[in-house]
Write a structure and sequence with these properties.
Oligomer: heterodimer
CATH superfamily of the largest domain in chain A: f41 fragment of flagellin, N-terminal domain
Number of strands of chain A: 6
Largest sheet of chain B: 5 strands, antiparallel
Radius of gyration of chain B: 43 Å
Strand content of chain A: 5-15%
Largest sheet of chain A: 2 strands, antiparallel
CATH topology of the largest domain in chain A: f41 fragment of flagellin, N-terminal domain
Strand content of chain B: 15-25%
Largest interface: A-B, 63 and 75 residues
Number of helices of chain B: 9
Shape of chain B: elongated
Strand order of the largest sheet of chain A: 1-2
CATH class of the largest domain in chain A: Mainly Alpha
Strand order of the largest sheet of chain B: 11-18-13-14-15
Number of strands of chain B: 27
Radius of gyration of chain A: 39 Å
CATH architecture of the largest domain in chain A: Up-down Bundle
Helix content of chain A: 55-70%
Helix content of chain B: 40-55%
Structural class of chain B: alpha+beta
Chain lengths: 306, 629
């Protein structure tokens, strides 16, 4: 076959050009450590990488959400823990006060301590989180859940429920508790809050010369109520605890999932560097060889011998 | 005795021409499209021979160059043309698709990442609904989404304009080529066959045809005299060039596609772009660009509709019903291309409802140094300098305008016009519109939930603003106006209590569950200001769901372009190989090989020298006769 001199130059140059673009692609891949530089390098792989990246981002958001939940629940739990301790002391006081031989002065001492406990309980019920929001006022986080009204009675002024934060696409966990539900107990005088019940207990101690029957009945209620209050707060802590456990489990699961997804993503997009370097070497050798053979072959011309 | 001198002279003349041709071949060895020429050397016809009884003993009449042959294979040439058209199509398409891919896929900085960050900041608001900084971050993410949609729309538009410009230039070039070919046809018709002139005209003809074939798909018919007829596409396609002359080609944009018109000033019918050449590549890329732009536009519209629908159902931190979060259209001022000044223009829309739908024009009068803003239909206008207010549009003008500067102000919609309407984080409607409360006096442990249900309307007018759901005797519920202090209050609706059942009320459904004592009550009222309610934020987060969701659908569009580009790259390298092979095969028949020419050079040089020797011999022989005395 005849070989056109011009075209043989052209095709040699074009072959060397394609080798050079292979080299450039390999260099870029090695420099970035990625097999897929543009989606068109591997459309399907690249779309799966994008899906995985999105799942990883979403997981991280859920983990962030759960961190926030854990923080809120820890605040709430420590407040309720402190309330339980106060209630244990209140129960001890109720046991002491139930002793019929106490004088009014003795009762006065107990009442003073009980007053402090009530103040503590009120203050703990009005605990705030790091951002200054009330923990137990439900949705109205800017309003203290409990306050004393004009008569000195402790009244509920919160509303709604604490927000539920998503920990997965279809599960949301409450970050706190509604103070009214949290502190309400069943008493012989109907449902009332622990705070109201303690206030009744204090009022009984403060009433001098109450008749024995009324006093005994009142003290029995105080004893039952403080016990019920301790139980109620323990239940509440258990609720917080189970939520935290749920969040922990979910966090662990998502972190494990993230590792799996990151590995999968890396498998899809990462470059086999060793193989790429071998390819680079081989392309370089090939280019060098074609350059040299080009130079040698092009020297050959009949005109050289004329 | 034969005319030895004449024979020698004919040889010298013939081989001189042959040497000239070799020289021409060597000189043009590197000219693309040059076809190797050869001198056709033939014996001169013998004179005489008319007398049957007389034997002709003359040696002959010498040699001459009967013509110049052009090494040319019609089939191989046409094959190379087709192959080059297929390659240029793939190459052009690859260039523009890479362009689209590069602005469409910008990784986490791109739309996909922005959408993800929009939804994730929405969840941050959901985890801390009263945090203003979380709300501001959410609005900023929403702004990024809108900016990304706008930027994509602009890139698609710039690409569309770029491709259209290339199409116009290509069509112009095609018209130049066909008109040059038409002139060439005339010259070829007048030139004698088998001459150097005709060979070089045919080289030029093939060069023009090759270029034409690299631009668009053509079908060439070569006539006996070397002139060509060119049809677009195939042998039944529209005639582009015939013996009468060339027809003008034009290009138009229609329905997201490029269409060609033949004789654009005389014919309104369009023809599809033939399937090879630069023009086909441009047309492919144009279609992909239009399709992707439309897909992104639809995506933007659906995203806006779906997020706005969710946002509108909630109330913000001030207890006010949420409006639209995104707007799907904006007013945009476009400067005229003829503007020479450097005016600055700051436009704000103070009242959307007053804006005239037909658009506006703004121009500067150099004589009076005044700007005039007028409705496009001229029904209202205002003239002034500095600031202009018309129909709820507030313009602040500055810079250095020049007389005659002109702006067009129009609404653009879809992705190009997307923007965020809310500026203050407190205005993000994160809360549900209704909130339910357990009365502090309740004796049961029953709980209450409320969900928005705009369709629910069971309460007769006048509808109270706050409702109390009260447990009546015998496990029935009663709905009363919270403000009704009558004893007993008016029951607006009632029914049997089924724990966990949703009871439609008025704009909401209420659900009671657990142990509820008679007389227990629950108040359902519009959500007040400052509530840490995230129900509506969760509704907005849910707009990302769907299979595929917005992020997935964007990713799918990227993949669509990437797949097309991937196929095109493969096609480009395959068609390049085919083209190179076709060119090699064509050149095997028609190109110059220098070694071959060197051999010819020696061959013809020797023949020339030999012929010269014959002349010398003839002279010597003649001298011999002169020398006889």
């Amino acid at each position: 076959m005849r070989v056109g001199t011009f075209q043989s130059f052209q095709s040699q140059v074009s072959r060397m050009g394609s080798l050079q673009s292979t080299l450039a692609q390999l260099e870029a891949q090695i420099a970035s450590g990625k097999r897929i530089l543009d989606p068109s390098d591997d459309p399907l792989g690249s779309s799966r990488v994008a899906d995985l990246q999105r799942s990883i981002d979403n997981n991280q958001q859920f983990i962030r959400n759960m961190d926030a939940i854990t923080t809120q629940l820890s605040f709430a739990d420590s407040a309720v823990d402190a309330m339980s301790n106060q209630m244990v002391r209140a129960k001890e006081l109720a046991v002491q006060a139930a002793n019929g031989t106490l004088t009014d002065a003795d009762r006065k001492v107990i009442s003073t301590e009980l007053g402090q406990i009530i103040d503590q309980m009120l203050s703990l019920s009005n605990s705030r989180d790091a951002a200054g929001n009330y923990l137990f006022s439900g949705a109205s986080v800017g309003t203290a859940p409990f306050a004393r009204d004009a008569t000195g009675a402790i009244v509920w002024q919160g509303s709604g429920e604490a927000p539920k934060v998503p920990i997965s696409t279809d599960v949301a966990v409450s970050t706190g508790a509604n103070g009214l539900s949290m502190l309400s107990i069943e008493t012989s005088g109907g449902r009332q809050t622990i705070l109201a019940s303690l206030s009744e207990f204090k009022a009984l101690l403060d009433a001098p010369g109450a008749d024995a029957a009324t006093f005994t009945a009142g003290m029995e209620k105080a004893l039952r109520d403080t016990t019920a209050g301790i139980d109620r707060l323990a239940d509440q802590r258990a609720t917080f605890g189970s939520r935290m456990a749920q969040v922990d489990t979910e966090t662990d699961r998502l972190k494990a999932l993230e590792t799996t997804m990151t590995t999968a993503k890396s498998n899809l997009e990462s470059l086999d560097v060793a193989a790429a370097i071998v390819q680079l070497k081989s392309a370089m050798t090939l280019l060098d060889a074609s350059q040299q053979s080009f130079a040698q072959i092009k020297k050959l011309s009949l005109f050289s011998y004329l | 005795m034969s005319d030895l001198l004449g024979l020698g002279a004919s040889g010298v003349r013939a081989y001189q021409t042959a040497l000239d041709i070799v020289g021409e071949n060597i000189a043009n060895a590197n000219v693309p499209g040059y076809a190797r020429r050869t001198a056709v050397v033939a014996e001169n016809p013998s004179a005489g021979g008319g007398f049957p009884l007389t034997r002709q003993t003359a040696a002959g009449s010498g040699v001459n160059v009967s013509g110049i042959a052009r090494a040319y294979d019609a089939f191989l040439t046409s094959d190379a043309r087709t192959a080059s058209g297929d390659y240029t199509r793939a190459q052009t398409r690859q260039y523009w698709l890479s362009e689209i891919e590069s602005f469409l896929n910008t990784g986490s900085q791109g739309l996909s990442g922005r959408l993800t960050s929009f939804y994730n900041t929405a969840q941050d608001v959901a985890s801390d609904p009263t945090s203003l900084s979380a709300r501001d971050a959410f609005l900023s993410a929403a702004g990024e989404v809108a900016a990304q949609f706008r930027s994509l729309a602009q890139s698609f538009d710039a690409t569309r304009t770029g491709i259209k410009q290339d199409v116009d230039q290509t069509v112009d070039r095609i018209n130049d080529l066909t008109s040059a070919l038409s002139t060439l046809n005339g010259t070829i018709r007048r030139t004698a066959d088998g001459t150097s002139a005709s060979a070089s005209l045919e080289d030029e003809r093939d060069r023009l045809l090759n270029e034409l074939a690299s631009l668009t798909k053509i079908d060439v018919t070569t006539r006996g005299d070397g002139t060509v007829d060119v049809r677009l596409d195939n042998s039944t396609g529209p005639m582009l060039l015939d013996q009468m002359g060339a027809k003008l080609l034009g290009a138009t944009e229609a329905n997201g596609k490029i269409r060609l018109t033949l004789d654009p000033f005389g014919n309104s019918g369009t023809i599809p772009v033939p399937g090879s050449g630069v023009l086909a590549g441009l047309s492919d890329a144009y279609t992909q660009n239009s399709n992707s732009a439309a897909a992104i536009d639809t995506l933007a519209q659906q995203f806006i509709t779906s997020v706005n629908a969710a946002h509108g159902q909630g109330v913000d931190l001030n207890g006010i019903a949420g409006g639209d979060l995104f707007a799907a259209s904006s007013l945009v001022a476009t400067p005229s291309r003829t503007n020479t000044g450097q005016a600055t223009l700051d436009m704000q829309v103070t009242d959307e409802t007053l804006v005239f739908a037909g658009g506006y024009e703004l121009w500067y009068d150099g004589g009076t140094s005044q700007w005039t803003l007028s409705r496009a239909d001229g029904s209202a206008s205002i003239t002034g300098s500095g600031t202009l207010d018309l129909d709820g549009i507030h313009l602040e003008l500055g810079g250095a305008p020049k007389g005659g500067d002109w702006f067009q102000i129009e609404g653009v919609s879809g992705a190009a016009g997307m923007r965020v309407l809310i500026e203050d984080g407190a205005d993000v409607a994160a809360a549900a519109p209704w909130a339910a409360n357990i009365s502090a006096a309740n004796q049961g442990t029953g709980t209450v939930s409320v969900r928005s249900n705009p369709a629910a309307a069971t309460i007769p007018a006048p509808v109270p603003t706050s409702f109390t759901v009260r447990m009546g005797a015998g496990s029935t519920y009663e709905i009363i106006d919270t403000a009704d202090t009558g004893v007993p209050p008016t029951v607006l609706a009632s029914g049997a209590y089924v724990p966990g059942a949703w009871i439609p009320v008025n704009g909401f459904d209420v659900q009671l569950s657990g142990t509820i004592a008679e007389g227990d009550s629950f108040v359902v009222a519009p959500t007040a200001a400052g509530m840490a309610d995230n129900a509506n934020m969760l509704r907005m987060v849910d707009t990302r769901l769907g299979n595929p969701g917005f992020e997935g659908r964007f990713a799918r569009e990227v993949t669509r372009v990437a797949t097309n580009l991937n196929d095109t790259k493969a096609l480009a390298s395959a068609t390049l190989a085919v083209r190179d092979k076709a060119l090699e095969t064509r050149d095997a028949a028609s190109a110059v090989n220098l070694d071959e020419e060197a051999a010819d050079l020696i061959r013809f040089q020797q023949a020339y020298q030999a012929s010269a020797k014959i002349i010398a011999a003839a002279r010597e022989i003649f001298q011999t006769i002169i020398d006889i005395r």
